[in-house]
Amino acid sequence: MIHPEGIRSDVDLSAMNTLALPGCSDYFSRFESASELLDCVEWAFAQQLPIRMLGGGSNVLMPPRVSGLVLQSGMTSIAIRSATKEMISVAVDAGVCWHDWVLKSLSFGHGLENLALIPGTVGAAPIQNIGAYGVEVAELIEQVEGFQLSTRQWRILSRQECRFDYRDSIFRHELADDFIVVRVVFSLRRQFIANISYAPLAHWAAEYLSDKNKPMLTPEALVSAVCAIRQTRLPDPLQLPNAGSFFKNPLVTGVMAAELKACYPDVPLYPARLKQQQKLAAGWLIDQCGWRGRGLGPVRMHQQQALVLTAPEPATLAQVQALQQAVADSVRARFGVELEPEPRIFGD
Fold first, then answer.
1. Which listed residue (167, 183, 292, 300) is catalytic?
2. Residue 2 lies in a domain
3. Is residue 250 part of a domain?
4. In total, how many domains does the chain have?
5. Do the Cβ atoms of 309 and 320 come closer than 8 Å?
6. By three-state DSSP, how is residue 201 classified?
7. Judgement on whether residues 177 and 270 belong to the same structural domain of the protein
8. Is the whole model's pTM more than 0.85, yes or no?
9. Which of 153, 212, 259, 275 fits a 20 to 30 Å CA distance from 144?
10. Bridge partners for 79 per DSSP
11. Catalytic residue selected from 58, 245, 292, 300
12. Residue range 269-303, pLDDT digits in tens
């Protein structure tokens, strides 16, 4: 059924989440402009329906049924806002594919290279504060623009107001299910400064620069290296359904980190934002518990990267949650560490 406003009912969402979990929405619409978004919002308000925003579906667990109106941005414009000799601000619509934007960003400025090939959309990036290989997107965000449902007003949130943290932001707390990201403004450096703090990238850079035919490390070369590293460690969702890194790297106190190091000398430890904390590698913990390449039913942890939960065969939310719980229980029993999943149940 097609509603006059372009809103469809009983829409299959299985192809709109990268784990390919079966799900169906009461109503669905993909808006192409701010005015279309407002029309959808007003219709949902009139019907007294909750509104759910869906990006690329790479960080969600799809339930069998999603109540209310599911919205997806089809807005894809990219425009320069301001520029100086050192920096350039670029406004990017929420519906732009994240990897496409990273590639396009090279023609404007620099800073996003390490975030290449992360699945999803630009609009979803600030919600989780995506990060990889020593870079978090929060470092490059100037502001986030969108529509707040509870006040029915357009809002512009500065980087500070977004309250970014490790895989976290205000959009997962006070503004959860209350803010529709319409546009993200990025502040990019004019000068390219390669971030090769991540060990595999540092190794790659050393080899790259040892080649006399390659005297300079270029942003294009860095992006290619990042993509190559990701492709060796993370499966393509189009070939093997998955939601990327399934668990957050847990933060522990310095005391607990020291105790773990004493018991397990090989445990990887990384600095955290707070000096009294350290970050553990969730993938290492899961691997030590014997879950690499193992699973329950149709879902399993990836053979090349134990942090990635995959669905090589058609699976349901309940089956994913069963493996999630089993892995978390194993890590808790052996290390006394709690694992928190990155993807969240869509619509909750």
1. 167
2. no
3. yes
4. 4
5. yes
6. helix
7. no
8. yes
9. 275
10. 91
11. 245
12. 988 877 789 999 999 999 999 999 999 999 999 99
